[in-house]
Amino acid sequence: MTSDLNGSALTDAVVASFDSGADPRLRMVMAALVRHLHAFAREVELTETDYFTGIDFLTRAGQISSDTRQEFVLLADVLGLSTVTVDLGNRLPDGATAATVFGPFYVEGAPEIQNGGDMSNGAPGQPCLVRGRVLAVDGTPIANALVEVWQSDEDGFYDVQKDVDGPQNRGHLRTDDNGHFWFWAVRPVAYPIPDDGPVGELLRAAGRGPMRPAHIHFMVTAPGYLRLITHIFARGDAYLDKDPVFGVKSSLIATFTEHLPGSAPDGRLLDRTYTTLEYDLVLAPEPDSRRKDTAS
Ligand code: BEZ
Ligand code: FE
Question: Is 123 in contact with 153 (CB distance < 8 Å)?
Answer without folding.
Answer: yes
